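PT: before anyone asks, these are the final sequences, not the draft ones from last week. 756 residues across everything. Please model them as a single complex and drop the result in this thread when it's through.
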Amino acid sequence: MEPVVHLHSTVALLGRFPALAGVDLDVDPGEIVLLRGPNGAGKTTVLRLCAGLVAPTRGEAVVLGVDLTVDRRSIRPLVGMMGHATGLYDDLTVAENVRFWARAGGADPADAGAAMDRVELAARVRSLPVERLSAGQRRRASLAAMLVRRPRLWLLDEPHAGLDAAARDLVDSLVTEASSVGATVLFASHELDRAEAVATRTVTISGGMVVGDSAAHLSAPVLEATHGA
Amino acid sequence: MTESVPAPPAVGPTSTSSRGTRVLGAVCLVGLAVTGLYAFVVTGPDVRLGNSVRIMYVHVPTVTAAYCLMIANAGFSIYTLWKKSTFADLAAHACAEVGVVMLGLTLVVGAIWGRMTWGAFWVWDARLTTTALLFLMYVGYLAVRGLPAPPRVRATRSAIVGIAAACLIPVVHKSVEWWASLHQNETVLGKVNPNIEGNQYFTLMLSMVVFALVAVWLTIHRFRVLWLTEQLDEVGVDAAIDERRAEHTGVEVGR
Amino acid sequence: MVHDALIIAGKDLRLEARSRVALNQVLPFVLAVVLLFGFALDADTALLRRATSGLFWVTVLFSAVIMVQRSFAIERQDGVTDALRLSSLSPGGIFLGKVVSLFCQLIVVEVVLGLCVVVFYDVTLSGGALLAVVSVVATLGIAAAGSLYGPLAAGLRNRDTLLPLLLLPVLAPILLGASRAFETALGRGVGGGWQWAAMLGIFAAVYLALGVAVWGTLLEET
Amino acid sequence: MIAAITTNSWWLIILAWVITGVVLAWYAVATIRRGRRLSRQVPPESRRWL
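LR: through. Structure below.
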């Protein structure tokens, strides 16, 4: 089974600063991997690198079969990213935003309604400009804009931050559902108790390197067995 | 293998000049002296232009050098985008900067020449206007280059502005030419270098060559200064990576 | 590519319809400039009438700078640039989309400005065909140049004063061509209006081609 | 038709030459000085051309 993400001693520079100083990480399809570690350890950079937004300056980086050192553009439509930034137009309504991002992602704008249902956005909220939404509603709208494109690799940067309990359960259920359908999820989080409940594997990052991997002592087949059941 | 601490700057050459540039520098100085001599002493005033032709010996070469530098800038910019090479990026910057200095000079000298020929510092003459526009466009180029950004981003941005500016040179040239020709008080000069002959023509050609060499000499030195600045930053990368790895605090390894 | 452009243009125009920035801010600005020129030239209607084409296009240029600033500030909203990179829209398509949306908004500004000029400067319009063609081609050039320099200079804290420096010198040939062509259209010009229109066409073509070619690296690197 | 060419305005011609000379000299010196200052800080092996 070819790994969705294969990073080997990958170095990534942000300007002059080596955000990643040699990351080794392999993620298989269907896995839900939690990236944990102190702030500034490089978690977000790993996510952005996998999304093709940051260029690997050294080492290997292959995501969804695409070698990022050669081409960072072709994987982007297959990847869904959600971070602190919503990536929505404040002046447009939620529905308009989701429909636009659907069209932009090559998906059918009609699916926008379904995506907004899945994130449980109230009908009233959908016609409000994003500007007037609460943080939780913004996050749901941002999630809907990502869902509608049906990405194969989810890259979430602290998805639980600033959400109420209901919204967090929703995020977890969506993540698990996506994983069961074969999508792969890589997310960074500080809320370890909740995050570890949903993650199938925990990877610790510090100083721009992977320093711990809960699946390390499990050999691949064992992982497959437990995960497959 | 990674050089942990940048080696103290050993004795090595201590400036951007090298044997090649010293020779070129000497040739330039001699050339300038000879041109000056010719311009002021050997050649007489022009039959129609009078003494103002002596300004032409400075005005024409600087504007020609500036144009060549801008074309070089465009060439390097294309190469930067195509091959993503730092060398071309820095070379484009050097060319543009020397080019802007030359364009600035052309404007000042052109104004003086205007003052002499038409009694007014600024005349909406086709060449002067075009030069002024190009000067502004390349000041914009240097402004874009001045923005704080990672080197790769800065290189791409500047390359795009460089290419865009170069694409405009013919358009600006043509439109201003048309525009100036619409005006009644067509300048007496017509073409920039009237068919002066004899040693005046030689002086002009001589000063063209000398100013070209001066431009090349300046660009080389400017390039090397940029190269040094780049190296200064680059040296830090390996050290930064080691520093970064050392930063790894003893975070409890995954269960 | 064209499909992508329409998506982006649709979004921009819908966003404009919702936020009405052009309507509420740019049009009043245009009216203000028309009046200011009146004060500056001491309401000498003969002079204003003679200078109309020049004043018209200077006003259009200034409005264009504001609109380009606005058009690319909205793309700077948090996370939108990344989302655009992650979408499957071709960079050339996004560029053309921005050009189309800027073009439409600028045409609206020009129509309103035309009315103001007729009213305030007592100008009698003539040579309609040339006026229309020149306006379309010049506006296309302005929108194309604006969309190329926009991402470089718009919406970032220490950069918003950079756009006029970058854009205005580049638009000089447009100002030249459009105002001379307008003059011939309004019956006072000396030279061939259609020649100028051709030059404006070349300018627009150069910038459209350049924009489509380099916008990809621009989106990637800014 | 055109303003009389002030043929004897020598000082303008000299001014033109002086300005050109001064500006180019200043620019050259500034670049050389900056080059010297930087050369001291950069380790020799990365100064390929020297």
